[in-house]
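Whiteboard transcription, Tuesday session. T.W. wrote the structure tokens on the left side:
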């Protein structure tokens, strides 16, 4: 892992949160290399005992430009709760309307779930 190009960017938070380092490393590389996000930065979320990733996702629709998103990585083996999600929202300044939780597995699969604050009516 230390020889990987993304290690210098992540090394401080990998050392600070070793229990969640695998998920952080996997999601960061997926977003930067596979999903081709730009302006990617790693954020410290002490209340959640992990790091988050903020960046600009490429434009999916030509009518809308790229959007800024925040992703909180976690492993499939972890338990998460509504209080944990609440801490993720309040740790971010400004608090976003939505975050993505990236759940990773040992086979390197990653699933992204969009989580909104409060009750949000789905688009029609």
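and on the right, the sequence the group agreed on:
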């Amino acid at each position: 892992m230390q020889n990987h190009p993304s290690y210098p960017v992540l090394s401080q938070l990998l050392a600070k949160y070793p229990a969640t380092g695998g998920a952080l490393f996997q999601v960061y590389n997926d977003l930067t290399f596979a999903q081709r996000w730009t302006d990617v930065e790693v954020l410290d979320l002490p209340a959640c005992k992990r790091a988050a990733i903020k960046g600009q996702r490429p434009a999916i629709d030509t009518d809308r430009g790229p959007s800024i998103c925040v992703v909180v990585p976690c492993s499939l083996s972890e338990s998460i709760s509504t209080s944990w999600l609440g801490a993720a929202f309040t740790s971010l300044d400004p608090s976003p309307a939505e975050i993505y939780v990236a759940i990773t597995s040992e086979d390197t699969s990653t699933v992204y779930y969009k989580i909104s604050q409060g009750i949000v009516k789905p688009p029609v």
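Someone added at the bottom: The two ends are 44 Å apart (CA to CA).
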